[in-house]
Amino acid sequence: MTRKFRVFATCDIGQDALDLLRQRGYEVEVYPKPEAPPKQLILDKVRSGIDGLITTLRDPIDAEIFEAGKGTLKVVAQDAVGFDNINRADANRYKIPFTHTADVLTEATAEFAFFIMGAVARRMWASERLVREHEWGYWHPYLPFLGDEITGKTIAIIGTGRIGLAMIKKCTGFDMNILCYDPAYQNNDYVSAIQKVMDVRHANGVQQERTWIRYVEFEHALGEADFVSVHVPLIREGESQTPTYHLFNERTFRLMKPTAYLVNTSRGPVVDEIALVKAVREHWIAGAALDVFEKEPLPATSPLLDTDIADRVRLFSHFASAGRITRLSTDPNKGMAGRCVQGLIDVLEGNYGGDPSKMPYVVNKEAFR
Ligand code: GLV
């Protein structure tokens, strides 16, 4: 029988996963609204002595929260892979482990990135709009517009962590050439394996052209690619040697081809949106597909919503991991909800000998070594 732990969840991460905690005797309170709770409410809950806090990417978790939980709060379990909302240095100072849900959303996010790339390049929204608005007047070889194919083109993958690598795998199936860039780490084994797959496909007549994959410098990737897909974490100035805040800005958009498209499923602030709107409006680039924004939800006043660029800009609601199994499965190897509660259980119930540095879903292992 486990001790009765008290947990507050800032969001309903899925009934089945929460029930899993309740079945173990946990007392679980869930913020009932779909919007993020006010920070003051999180502070009050933490101050009331909860053992575990379940968070999402909308909740700012910083020194104030950790101070409120001093001596009582044992774990923060984030229902997301990204954790730029959690101040890692503060968590380490207070020696509070926090967990995330890497791996289980990798394929869902990469396939979504691929699909929105297709949506913008093949003008799927514009085509559907014609039909819905009764403006589809004829079949014609090129009127009223054409899109750009993806098959056989060159893509730049910016960030070759888990999701970037999964995107590479999907692009390989579409006979794409692949330029890789990562500011922090290079997975040369994976790149060699993909080149072998490409060679086998070519040698056996599965694809006509021989395609290639290689690591290059950032500027080189931007200058050669027909598509640029962003898969880096958000790292602000001063947080590391390789910040990614506004990695895409006026200077870097000018390096891209006027026929190239940007795809962003990582974090909004990696892209300077004012610069992006200018780049699309002035045809420095062909278009963009975005699932993430500098401010979410996207404000009604955002210039990204301007109707004169609507045909070339696809906008989505931070939806890339929003597949049923990916979001809700209680299996920690399949679902974010399952992995989130397992991370919480590992810490509270002292799995892995009670050593957070050995727990697979703990992010800030360095604080416990
Ligand atoms: C989604 O953006 C996540 O980080 O899980």
What features would you describe in this structure?
It is built from 13 helices and twelve strands. By secondary structure, the protein is α/β, with parallel strands linked by helices. The protein folds into two domains: 6-104 and 324-368, Rossmann fold, CATH 3.40.50; 106-315, NAD(P)-binding Rossmann-like Domain (Rossmann fold). It has a seven-stranded parallel sheet, with helices on both faces. A five-stranded parallel sheet has the order 2-1-3-4-5, with helices on both faces. β6, α7 (162-172) and β7 (177-181) form a beta-alpha-beta unit. Bound molecules: glyoxylic acid.
Summarize the structure.
Helices cover 33% and strands 12% of the residues. The protein has helices spanning 15-23, 39-47, 63-68, 88-93, 106-121, 124-132, 162-172, 188-203, 218-224, 250-255, 273-281, 324-328, 336-348; strands at residues 6-9, 27-30, 52-55, 75-78, 98-99, 154-158, 177-181, 213-215, 227-230, 261-264, 287-290, 313-315. The protein has a seven-stranded parallel β-sheet, sandwiched between helices.
Attached small molecules = glyoxylic acid
What class, by secondary structure content? alpha/beta
What is the β-strand count? 12
Q: N- to C-terminal separation?
A: 29 Å
Point out poorly predicted stretches.
none
Basic shape: globular
**Strand-and-helix sequence, N→C?**
EHEHEHEHEHHEHEHEHEHEHEEHH
Largest sheet features: 7 strands, parallel
pLDDT averaged over residues: 97
The first-level CATH class of the largest domain is given as Alpha Beta
- Summed up, the domain count is 2
User: How large a portion of the residues is in β-strands, by DSSP E?
Assistant: 5-15%
User: In which range does the helix fraction lie?
Assistant: 25-40%
CATH topology of the largest domain: Rossmann fold
CATH superfamily of the largest domain: NAD(P)-binding Rossmann-like Domain
Rg, nearest Å: 22 Å
CATH architecture of the largest domain: 3-Layer(aba) Sandwich
